[in-house]
Design goal:
The chain is built from one helix and ten strands, in the order αββββββββββ. By secondary structure, it is an alpha+beta fold.
Length: 148
């Protein structure tokens, strides 16, 4: 027969594990694309955790009802470390680009930084920035993880 204290601690552990699991499901919300009224932009990847060297497909979607303007053909896409150091930005022409409501543009990153080195394991921030028809900045970022 098990001791009462052992049964109590196992019970508390099971309840705590269930509560923590439900919390993590809520925090790790994978709903990246939400359409809203007004100016909005979304960044969508197929997942948040990638293996080292795996190709990362990035979709930039105008998830609002207002057309957005970008200063170049890269649609403001930047990949940085969490410290803010620029790791990658697509090579693009200096032409003004537009994204109509509901439209999207797709980029691919092979985890090679602008200096030609491979990205290391860690957390990376993917961001984009556009301008709405009133001149307001519309920005969005997501965080991804690259694992071994």
């Amino acid at each position: 027969m098990l001791a009462k204290s052992l049964v109590l601690f196992i019970g508390i552990g099971l309840v705590a594990g269930l509560v923590f699991g439900l919390y993590l499901i809520d925090v790790k919300n994978t709903s990246q694309l939400v359409f809203v009224e007004g100016a909005s932009i979304s960044i969508v990847t197929e997942k948040f955790d990638f293996k080292k060297g795996e190709e990362i497909i990035i979709r930039i979607v105008n998830s609002g009802t207002i057309p957005l303007t970008f200063s170049d053909a890269s649609y403001g896409l930047k990949i940085t470390g969490l410290s803010g150091i620029l790791m990658y930005t697509p090579v693009s022409a200096q032409v003004i680009s537009n994204l109509e409501p509901g439209d999207e543009i797709i980029f691919s990153w092979d985890q090679i930084k602008n200096d030609g080195d491979a990205a290391l394991e860690g957390l990376y921030k993917i961001s984009t920035k556009g301008i709405d028809n009133e001149g307001n900045n519309v920005e969005k970022f997501i965080t991804i993880t690259i694992w071994k």
